[in-house]
């Protein structure tokens, strides 16, 4: 029988950011640089289970240099947003899906599984404390739940103590003046994940391993890197932090299947549902880099886009590769890409019906 969920206590910030200064910061917050006054925190130990749940002032963490996370990288995280709705209310977008993926990631990293209800409650309470930090217009409050091994020991084993936290960051519109197509570099030397690895988990190690390829992409004048599979170096998987879709000339969409090496994106899942609602065929099937090039050249492929929580939808206009560069369609933002982005954005902001029940309204 599982232990009862710990009750949250609220320890308000004694010196929160003044309203005038907060308003200044929210004019153009960018992404991931403006943080709110509070954070959520829950501790775990093998002895006590989940305990000491609190909303408290955001601040630095005292951490022992022998903390397990610093040596063996037991760490996972999530990303989701809180939106100011058209009717003035506030809502999270599919926090239950993030909660499930967080548990899956914890299981893969041999970490304790946070109950889904406790995950959602921690976010609800933090948003309630810092609701004034949600920007107006196209902005949102980006939420970063994460957990790491905090036990002080040097030994290769699952830790006995963990710290779960949520921090919040005010973010502005990702695209100013409309979506801009990006260019991507095909990584032939490095891969993101291998079968049996941690590719389907949202852990920091996956992103750390992708940075050298991202650095190479920037050196090639590209915005992002696209990874191929580790076994054959043939099949397209995903970008450094986004899933990929391909739009064909018959209106159908193709996206790489979830085979354990690709992160099961919540935006990806939402777009598949919306596309099918619009009568489009979506095929989750392998798609090779050679197919991508040939389909772009023949005109069979008319659009490609990446998707994720931060940018939601990002058009891909050009692909750079040692085997030869190519442009997708006109190199601009395609109609299907634009339509799906608008449909998802409208639901997230309460401007359109929500037939799937994705919006989690806060009181």
Automatic annotation (TrEMBL):
Pathway: Amino-acid biosynthesis; L-valine biosynthesis; L-valine from pyruvate: step 4/4; Amino-acid biosynthesis; L-isoleucine biosynthesis; L-isoleucine from 2-oxobutanoate: step 4/4; Amino-acid biosynthesis; L-leucine biosynthesis; L-leucine from 3-methyl-2-oxobutanoate: step 4/4. Pfam families: Aminotran_4 (PF01063). Its EC number is 2.6.1.42. InterPro entries: Aminotrans_IV (IPR001544), Aminotrans_IV_CS (IPR018300), Aminotransferase-like (IPR036038), B_amino_transII (IPR005786), BCAT-like_C (IPR043132), BCAT-like_N (IPR043131), BCAT_family (IPR033939). One of its GO terms (molecular function) is branched-chain-amino-acid transaminase activity. Coiled coil: none annotated. PANTHER family: BRANCHED-CHAIN-AMINO-ACID AMINOTRANSFERASE, SUBGROUP IIII AMINOTRANSFERASE. Acts on leucine, isoleucine and valine. Belongs to the class-IV pyridoxal-phosphate-dependent aminotransferase family. This is Branched-chain-amino-acid aminotransferase. It comes from Sphingomonas aurea. The lineage of its organism: Bacteria, Pseudomonadati, Pseudomonadota, Alphaproteobacteria, Sphingomonadales.
């Amino acid at each position: 029988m599982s232990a009862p969920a710990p009750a949250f206590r609220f320890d308000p910030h004694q010196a929160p950011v003044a309203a005038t200064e907060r308003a200044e910061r929210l004019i153009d917050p960018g992404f991931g640089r403006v943080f709110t006054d509070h954070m959520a925190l829950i501790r775990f130990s093998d002895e006590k289970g989940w305990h000491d749940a609190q909303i408290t002032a955001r601040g630095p963490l005292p951490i022992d240099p022998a903390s397990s996370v610093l040596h063996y990288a037991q760490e996972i995280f999530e990303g989701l947003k809180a939106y100011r709705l058209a009717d003035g209310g506030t809502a999270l977008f599919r926090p239950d899906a993030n909660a499930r993926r967080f548990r899956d990631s914890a299981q893969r990293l041999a970490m304790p599984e946070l109950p889904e209800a406790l995950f959602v409650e921690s976010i609800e309470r933090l948003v309630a404390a810092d609701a004034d930090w949600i920007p107006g217009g196209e902005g949102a409050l980006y939420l970063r739940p994460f957990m790491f091994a905090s036990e002080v020991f040097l030994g290769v084993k699952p830790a006995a103590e963990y710290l779960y936290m949520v921090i919040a960051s005010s973010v502005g519109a990702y695209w100013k003046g409309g979506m801009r197509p990006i260019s991507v570099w095909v990584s032939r030397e490095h891969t993101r994940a291998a079968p049996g690895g941690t590719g389907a988990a949202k852990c920091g190690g996956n992103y750390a391993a992708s940075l050298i390829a991202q650095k190479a992409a920037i050196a090639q004048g590209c915005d992002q890197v696209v990874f191929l599979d580790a076994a054959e170096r043939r099949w397209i998987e995903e970008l450094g932090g986004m899933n990929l879709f391909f739009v064909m000339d018959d209106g159908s969409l193709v996206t790489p299947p979830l085979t354990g090496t690709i992160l099961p994106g919540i935006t990806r899942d939402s777009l598949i549902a919306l596309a099918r609602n619009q009568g489009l065929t979506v095929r989750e099937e392998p798609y090779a880099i050679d197919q991508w090039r040939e389909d772009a050249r023949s005109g069979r492929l008319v659009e490609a886009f990446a998707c994720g929580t931060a940018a939601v939808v990002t058009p891909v206009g050009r692909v750079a590769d040692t085997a030869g560069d190519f442009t997708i369609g006109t190199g601009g933002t395609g109609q299907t890409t634009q339509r799906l982005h608008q449909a998802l954005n409208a639901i997230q902001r309460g401007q359109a019906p929500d037939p799937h029940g994705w919006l989690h309204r806060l009181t």
